[in-house]
Amino acid sequence: MCSYITETTAVVGSAKGPEGWVNVTSANVYFDHPYHAALDHALSIDFLSPDSSQRVAVELSAESARELVARILSALATGEAEHG
Predict the structure, then answer these.
(1) How would you label 68-79 residue by residue, b for 16+ Cβ within 10 Å and e otherwise?
(2) Residue pair 30/2 in contact by the 8 Å Cβ criterion
(3) pTM (predicted TM-score)
(4) pLDDT band at 1 (very low <50, low <70, confident <90, very high)
(5) Which of 18, 33, 54, 77 is most open to solvent, judged by the fewest CB atoms within 10 Å of its CB?
(6) Helix (H, G, I), strand (E, B), or coil: what is residue 20?
(7) Interacting residues of 32 by C-beta distance below 8 A, sequence separation 6+
(8) In the chain, what is the greatest distance between 2 CA atoms, to the nearest angstrom?
(9) What are the tens digits of pLDDT across the range 24-53?
C-alpha cells in the first residue's frame, strides 16, 4: 500500500540537472515505492526549481538514507567548528 506521505521544506541552494545548474527552493521527501531504484521502498528526495520545470531526484534505501543523514550532520558539525 502506498502512503503518499510527503514532507516538504524550503531550501536554499543549487542543483545540477540535465540542462545545467538551477536554483532550488524546495524539497519533497517521502518514503514509498521508488520509480527507478530496484528497492521495495525507498526514501525519495525531489529538489525543485522555481525557475523551470526541472527537478533533481534521488531514491535511497532506508539504510543508505540513515547513513547519509549521519554523514551530513557530521560534516556540518565539523565544518561549522572549523569555519563557524
Answers:
(1) eeeeeeeeeeee
(2) no
(3) 0.86
(4) low
(5) 18
(6) strand
(7) 2, 3, 4, 5, 41, 42, 44
(8) 46
(9) 999 999 999 999 999 999 999 999 998 778
